[in-house]
Amino acid sequence: MKEQYLTITQLSRYLKYKFDQDTNLSTVYLKGEISNFKAHTRGHYYFTLKDEGSRINAIMFASNTSKCKFMPTDGMKVMVTGRVTVYEATGGYQIYVNEMIEDGIGNLYIAYEQLKQKLELEGLFAKEKKKKIPRMPKRIGIVTAPTGAAIRDILTTIKRRYPIAETILFPALVQGVDAGKDIAKKIEIANTYDLDTLIVGRGGGSIEDLWPFNEEIVARAIYNSKIPIISAVGHEVDFTIADFVADLRAPTPTAAAELAAVDMNTVLEYLTTAKSRSYNAILKKIQTEKAKLDNLKESYGLKRPNTIYEIKEQKLDALVERINSLIKNKIENTKIRLYKSTSSYILNNPNILYLEKQEAFKNIYMRLNKEISIILTNKKTQLFKLENSYVLNNPEILYKFHQQNLNSLIEKLTVLNPMNTLKRGYAIVKENNHVISTTKEIKQNQKINISLKDGELTAKVLEVRKENDKN
Q1: What is the spatial distance between Cα 397 and Cα 453, in angstroms, rounded to a whole number?
Q2: What is the rounded CA–CA span in Å between residue 123 and residue 388?
Q3: Residues 96 and 59 sit within 8 Å (Cβ to Cβ)
Q4: Mean pLDDT confidence for 339-367
Q5: How far apart are CA 337 and CA 158, in angstroms?
Q6: How confident is the model over 168-183, as a mean pLDDT?
Q7: Among 2, 15, 173, 211, which has the minimal tally of Cβ within 10 Å of its Cβ?
Q8: What angle do CA 33, 38, 39 make, to 5 degrees?
Q9: pTM
Q10: Tell me: the pLDDT tens digits for 431-469?
Q11: Strand (E) or helix (H) holding 380
């Protein structure tokens, strides 16, 4: 019989079919440690679940990750529920996780800490963003269960302390799966009312009972509220995310009512005190103003009003006299300047100014002609001397003079030529093209270059001897 060969795809598809038909693999409960965790941008979780002896690839799709109340990390021990099957593309088997809980530490506690850290980093707990609670509100809203000890305590306390305040109840679910969404919705509805303060809370209970107040949707509803919110969740030892986001945290519902409504007796005492202080202040003001009025009545000016007029009249006369004097002096000074200008010699004889300028021009013209004549005379004399000079008439003498100077320079250069010095048996010592002229510039084992008349040598200094050395 001829063998029938399968493709890799056919084999993987067959194994997948077998896995999918096995009821034992349709719902599997596993526990292990997470490694190679990766959260995809589309919301899926990819990771490896391992124990001491083996490992399995795992994937949790976004539709299920939304139900996970904590963010998985590498090294975290978890318990998962899912379906095991074969991934045809790689031929490997893996588990599709539907649910995942923390193994060991409480799952709700992990979710609480993660959300708290996230919202704190976003600034939802910032003190500078907290709104001030009104001291004497007209209308107080309450978001809580319509029955139970919490609402009774809040209403009783407000009625006892501040009965003139109006209260509006926004009944909400405070426990269960949909409680968080309902609380957030009621906070949004309350913001459509003309309220001064809003109390959000419930009585005590377990962490599971209080969990709706730890949900992100409730935290953001409180943060986005335009009405100042007092949180009143559980007992004094209970802290929820809502407590950190709220504008003010009350340890109990009763305490929330006390913070929301001032004690009427305190207000009445304050008003009585304010009334007494206002009366005394007004009385003192009246007495002070009456004393001022009495002083004005007895004043010299009020009794003899003509004296005020007389003083002002005298001051006016003095000012008029001063102004007239200043005007008179100004006119006299102007007349004097005008007289001097009209009586000036030049103004009466304008031709004099022209004659002075004409005479100055003639003097400058004569001096200029004289200077030009002197310069021309000197140039003619120099030209005559040059034309009759002996050197100009005998140029060969100038040539011989320069020839002698040239020969003298050649002789000096020949004497100074270092090559002639080398021919007489001397040498030139250098280091890196620097001429060495003293033993102070040479050290032992130093390499030097020695220039002779027919070439150069490279040498190494074995010993340096100076003239003042004894040996």
Answers
A1: 41
A2: 109
A3: yes
A4: 79
A5: 96
A6: 93
A7: 2
A8: 120
A9: 0.44
A10: 877 888 787 778 888 888 888 878 888 888 888 777 665
A11: helix 350-387
